Amino acid sequence: KLIYAVIGTGGIWGYYVGKLANNNHDVHFLFHSDYNHVNQHGLRVDSVYGLHILHPNALANSAAMPKADVI
Fold it and tell me: Angle at the Cα of 36 (from 49 to 10), degrees rounded to 5?
């Protein structure tokens, strides 16, 4: 099983990699200023198709990121 690491989650990567996370792929998101908000409310991408991940693997520190296959 591949491990995905997202550094700099924005609207485009947040959506596409978020779709992987919603389909039980092992995805870890690195956040800095938004970490607390995402931890409390989940990751939401507002678009025509929309996406909401209630409990993403959100991390606040790059040292906590697992060794990833895809970054």
Answer: 35
Three-state DSSP class for residue 60: coil
Give the tens place of pLDDT for each residue, 30-63. Answer: 999 999 999 999 999 888 888 999 999 999 999 9
Residue with tokens 């895809």: 70
31 burial level (CB within 10 Å; 0-12, 13-18, 19+)? buried
- pLDDT tier, 12 (very low <50, low <70, confident <90, very high otherwise): confident
* Alpha-carbon distances of 65 from 4, 27, 30, 50, 69, rounded to whole Å: 10, 10, 8, 26, 12
